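Model it.
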Amino acid sequence: MVHLITELSKYTMIILFALYTYQCFSALKKNMDPEDQEWKFSKQVIYMYLFHLNAYGVLFLATKNLDLLKFYLEQFVFFTVIQICYKIFYKKVSKLVVNNMCMLMCIGFVILTRLSYDSARKQFIIAIFSMGITMLIPVFISRWKFVKSLTWMYALAGITMLGVVAVLGAVSHGAKLSFSVAGINVQPSEFIKIIFVFFIASMFYESIEFTQVV
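Modeled.
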């Protein structure tokens, strides 16, 4: 019976993801009524929650691990809080981007939970703290006006980090991405991704002329 449910769930998840993807494109139609667009975004969230429930339901049936049900509920609350917080702190946010972000995290948690429950728990905790920091960014930007003028400081910081990796980095699985400090593994590329966003934002704040973009 469990095998049959598992097989059926595969098709159910494919259908839900197809419906979700369809709403992504249909919500981008020109001259769409705002209420219709809002309803499409709401349907995306519904499809995501159904996908999430389907996946964790199958995982629970396969393992009979009650911790998975608790983990599922924690994630459900997490995604709901994200949806609410973005409406409060980012009033002009693209709901399509928020929904896609949540859907990608949802898929990531499902895959990681199937591979390693402990790793998924750790990643979930990191996601919670990261989202908390994300909600504070608008406050910092509104108060620290100078961050928009540090354009080349961001570039210098990123290049310096890459240089440190090139000199001190250790090769792992064929790639030189990190180095150790006091026994702690540091991977600067993760920070560089954020710095790069600040660099681009600062450049476009100064100008969006063709030469500036180049």
